[in-house]
Design brief:
The protein is mainly alpha-helical and 418 residues long. Helices cover 70% and strands 4% of the residues. A hairpin with a 6-residue loop joins β3 and β4.
């Protein structure tokens, strides 16, 4: 057996075992604690809301298991099953220029993969989210989103893929450094352009018109020395009843965005506390740190690809009989998640660390008790489980478990402004 095949299969099997074990722990732990609200939340969250969150978590976890199985089957069919080579052969028969062939093969595979995954997306939206009362998406909006995603993919992705493949086909041995520079430049451009040019394709953004809340936010921004390009309300209720708030953009193109659903759930003081947490991410330079992490990981990945691209066994070991730069890129994109899974606990750890740091900043700018109150409301509104399995959470969750986060904030009550 080809050594690449052996390593791939061993890594795939190990990743499946780990993920099945974690999912099993999560299901068992959540169901075991379904009938009792944790002590820290007994006076804040009713039992029926706690049970709804448990059932929602269990249902989503079971769907995740199904997605894992289907995704593994599709990965094996694409690679060892010869699916990639079949698509490549069909396009090679047209005898197009190699660069054109590479681009159309990449996007053919992306579109086919999206179509194969569409039934799961439909089930998640119109069955699970509907069952738990979260779905607001209509069939028309859902179909429109698919076409818009495809349009954005083609408009942005085709030029990017063409440039990347052109650099890869060049004989320069440092092509991977040039591709890395292009990728980082594109990523930063998207961070800057997303709020003003792409997000409005999917949602409406209107300036915040709540005068009391607006004054609170302006005072908070002034205290924190933060400048943005505006505070906007997004029609999140168009698709879901889940509430959220976020920052987007870079430089002078930063925007503060609140879902309309969040503004209906929280009072102005609570919204201010949530915003103070989000400001903490900027003040503690978490965005910059994540960009640097992304840069380092992508650079390492491209360096590995630069080594693999010249190994004939890399192609044959993964079901491809005719090697090419574009097929090397496709194989790497498909197979790398199997190996990057093992970085996930480390990335989750740093993400949770950032959340604690943002909370610490928030309690210096607002009231810790109010932030706790806002978080509890959001846990209930979004049916977030209060009892995740600790090991599952450490592996998967970007935010600390609810009891841990609330306990951390409670320890800061004495240091928080009244």
């Amino acid at each position: 057996m080809n050594w690449i095949t052996l390593i791939f299969l061993l890594a795939l099997v190990l990743s499946l075992v780990i993920q099945f074990w974690l999912d099993r722990r999560q299901l068992t732990h959540v169901l075991r604690h379904r009938d009792a609200v944790p002590d820290a939340f007994k006076e804040r969250i009713p039992l029926d809301a706690h049970q709804k969150a448990a059932d929602y978590t269990v249902t989503r976890t079971r769907l995740g298991i199904m997605e894992l199985v289907l995704g593994t089957i599709l990965l094996l069919l694409w690679t060892l099953g010869g699916g990639l080579q079949l698509v490549d052969n069909l396009w090679r028969e047209l005898t197009l220029a190699p660069l054109v062939t590479g681009v159309v093969v990449i996007f053919s595979i992306l579109i086919i993969s999206t179509l194969l995954e569409l039934p799961v997306a439909i089930y998640r939206t119109f069955v699970i989210e509907q069952r738990f009362g979260f779905n607001r998406t209509t069939v028309g909006v859902f179909i429109g989103d698919q076409f818009k995603n495809l349009l954005v993919l083609l408009i942005l992705g085709v030029p990017l893929a063409t440039l990347v493949l052109w650099l890869m086909q060049d004989a320069d041995p440092l092509w991977w450094l040039y591709v890395w520079a292009v990728w980082m430049g594109f990523s930063l451009l998207m961070l800057w352009a997303w709020p003003a040019f792409i997000a409005p394709l999917f949602n409406k953004f209107v300036p915040l018109d709540n005068l009391e809340l607006k004054q609170r936010i302006e005072n908070l921004l002034s205290r924190c020395g933060f400048q943005s390009n505006g505070v906007f309300v997004m029609d999140g209720s168009k698709r879901s009843s889940h509430g959220n708030a976020y920052f987007s953009g870079l430089g002078t193109n930063k925007r503060i965005v609140f879902f309309d659903t969040l503004l209906k759930s929280l009072n102005p003081e609570e919204v201010e506390a949530v915003l103070a947490h989000e400001l903490g991410h900027f003040k503690r330079r978490h965005i910059q740190k994540r960009i640097i992490s992304m840069a380092v990981i992508s650079l390492a990945g491209l360096a590995i690809l630069a080594w693999l691209i010249n190994l004939p066994e890399f192609y044959t070991g993964l079901g491809v009989t005719e090697d090419s730069t574009y097929m090397a890129l496709i194989l790497f994109m498909m197979v790398s998640p199997v190996f990057s899974l093992y970085l996930q606990p480390l990335m989750a750890y740093f993400s949770r660390k950032h959340e604690f740091e943002a909370d610490d900043y928030a309690v210096q700018q607002s009231n810790a008790a109010v932030l706790i109150q806002a978080l509890v409301k959001l846990y209930e509104e979004n049916a977030s489980t209060l009892t995740p399995d600790p090991i599952y959470s450490a592996f998967h969750d970007s935010h600390p478990p609810a009891p841990v986060r609330v306990a951390h904030l409670s320890s800061k009550l004495a240091d928080s402004p009244v």
